[in-house]
Amino acid sequence: MDNWVLMSKEKLVNHTDNWQGQFNAIGPDQIRVKVSHILVTDFDALVYTGALKAKCPKTIGHAALGIVNEVGSSVHTFQERQRVYLRTAKPCGKCYACRSGHPEKCITPALAGKDFDGFLRDMMICRPEDVMFLPSDIDDVHALCIEAVGIAEAICGRLELNAGDKVAIVGMNFYGNIIAQTLMYHKIVPIGIDNNEENLSRSEKAGVTFNFAADDDLLRNVSSPTSGNLCDAVIYCAATHISPNVAARLCAPGKTMVFTSPSAHESSMEIHDILEKNLVVMAITTAYGYTASAVRLLQAHAINTDFYEKKIIKEENYDPVAILRERDENSANYRANKLTIIQTVI
Questions:
Q1: Could you tell me the pLDDT band of residue 241, with boundaries at 50, 70 and 90?
Q2: 327 in the Ramachandran plot: left (φ > 0), alpha (ψ -120 to 50) or beta?
Q3: Residue 177 — φ and ψ, nearest 5°?
Q4: b/e 156-186 (16+ beta carbons within 10 angstroms → b)
Q5: Closest CA to 110 of 270, 236, 285
Q6: What is the spatial distance between Cα 192 and Cα 233, in angstroms, rounded to a whole number?
Q7: Quick one: pLDDT band at residue 265, thresholds 50, 70, 90?
Q8: What is the pTM of this model?
Q9: Which whole number is the average pLDDT over 265-294?
Q10: What's the maximum distance between 2 C-alpha atoms anywhere in the chain?
Q11: In 96-230, at which residue ranges do the beta strands (DSSP E only) sit?
């Protein structure tokens, strides 16, 4: 039974000797879940390399699906063999909202695979609130996108945009693409910005009309769809290699810049444009509180992942170190990544 634990930076150990603990008797208010699909992301690669600091030892793996294997006697919300989404965030228990009895308003949620044990393992024991039932009309690939869609929904909720508003998305990677599709569902006009031709091509296939490279002509190009007024908001996907200064330049005075993505590369920015334009700056990096909304969007078929190449790993003896290193190398070299999925239940 696999349980991949990060002991320290780039030291990943399969704690097969601890697998028996996964078959301990569960409590009346607990459920046992068999992990069935794991989406390997840049977040996982950055935790593995130490770029994102995790308190070790830690079972890694940030996004996954599972199948209910057993339910406690007092659990009535789940049944055996139900397919579930494993929630990627929990209340931190430390912020003011948590300490005042409102964990649903937590502002610093703990993240799976970094702050608490993640899902790169075969079996886990958890509480019902740690998982979400998945309707049968959402396939496995789309279900693995729930966090990305939830982040997009959180952004839409916080920005309070109007139909027809123009929003630039700097970094049309996986998260940027999902955010663009979510904006279009809400009748907001996304403008995709990227220097990777594959990302721009995927953005066009997703239905984004305006897609531009972050080059010397960018401001002139963006002035056309915005009628020379720049953007009503700008979303900066922090896993991109494009400078965040680009986002500030595209934002109209008095509008909002959003920094997003669960993972980020090291970067810095000048604050001149922020101060000169009196911009509002916020960070939205988790889907906490928006997973149900994300499920509704997926049921409405608002998100399409068909143009993403999938790498589905079904080998019993898969090598997570090789998978994580490949992910990190592709990200570092700004190559568009496939959707890499480890499928443990065939």
A1: confident
A2: alpha
A3: -65, -45
A4: beebebeeebbbbbbbbbbbbbbbbbbbbbb
A5: 285
A6: 13
A7: low
A8: 0.90
A9: 88
A10: 64
A11: 110-111, 123-126, 131-133, 166-170, 189-193, 210-212
